Amino acid sequence: MAHHYLAWTGTVLPERLDGPWTEYRRIADDLALLESDQPLSPVYHELKWSLPEDTALLVAPLHARPKLKGLPAGTTTWLRDRLA
Fold it and tell me: Which of 27, 37, 59, 67 has the fewest CB atoms within 10 Å distance of its CB?
């Protein structure tokens, strides 16, 4: 079962990032959407370990499609395809 997460960091995220997710989509310098078969803890920790020490990090599960505006093309479609 796929889980969907929104991740915010206190630093610029790389364009590509390997981890326990099937999809990683950077939607702003410090914001990303992730799709993973893994629960929150492994996703959070892999992101944490890939960032500089003491970088702020928030990872939250997405259970419904959030309202959004001004994000890169395809973001709404990505969310619509995955969340109610």
Answer: 67
Q: Which pTM does this prediction carry?
A: 0.94
Q: For the CA atoms of the chain, what is the radius of gyration?
A: 12
The whole-angstrom distance between residue 66's C-alpha and the CA centroid of its chain comes to 13
Helix-, strand-, coil-residue percentages of the chain, each rounded to 5: 25, 30, 50
What CATH code is carried by the domain that includes residue 77? 3.30.70
Q: What is the pLDDT of residues 17-44, one digit of tens each?
A: 999 999 999 999 999 999 999 999 999 9
Task: Tell me the two tokens of residue 35.
Answer: 């799709």
The one-letter amino acid at 23 = E
